[in-house]
Structures are given as structure tokens and as C-alpha cells.
């Protein structure tokens, strides 16, 4: 009896699987193309928004320098300034200069120049030192 029920169940499954014609796959057609284009547009919009946020807020970066100095730099992009705090807590405001590449901020006797994670820090009366961003 059990084997008869099992044969009936298998026959039912086999006819159900073979009897229907599959519809278009969900990855075919114009609707999928439209969804892909919408997703690309959303990504572009998100990238532009991220860039806009970076240009219109203060970004903090910490640099470790070869002379063992630790610099905390607040890049105030809307005001085109950077505030540099050294290891002993002294702070100096630098003003953004036009750089061909990377960053360039300076004020009398102080300068921060760099590209990518590397920068050169010059403080009043001391030789320049190379620094690396750590976060």
C-alpha cells in the first residue's frame, strides 16, 4: 500500500513538472534593462551626493610624522582652511592654496602639502618632515 502511494505521488510530481511551459526568465526583457538603468542612475546620484558631502563639511585626518610628531588636521572644505594640532596641543589655522595635485595649505611659517596618504609638514623654524595619514 505504501509503495502504491509513493508511486502515485511521484507520478503526480513528474506530470506537474513536465506539464507547464516556463515563462520568460526574470532576467530577460525590457523590464530588467530598465531596472539596471535605474540602479546605475541611483549609484551615480549616490556618488555625487558623497562628493558633495565631502566638499561641504569638515574632515578630520591624523598624520604620523617621521620626527615622531602626531598631527590632527581638520580640513574645513567650505571655508578652504585646515586647522593643524600637533602632539602638544598647539593649533594653527592654514589657508588653502591652489595645488596642481593633492593638498596645499599654508600660513606664515607653516605649510602642509601632500597627495594621497603622504604629506609634508613644515612648522615655524623647524625642518620639513614627511608624514603619513593613519585614519
UniProtKB/TrEMBL annotation:
C-type lysozyme inhibitor domain span: 63-128
Keywords: Lipoprotein, Membrane, Palmitate, Signal
One family name in Pfam for this protein: MliC
Matches recorded under InterPro entries: MliC (IPR018660), MliC_sf (IPR036328)
Annotated spans, Disordered: 20-50
Signal peptide: 1-16
Keyword hit for tRNA-binding: no
Protein name: C-type lysozyme inhibitor domain-containing protein
Organism: Brevundimonas denitrificans
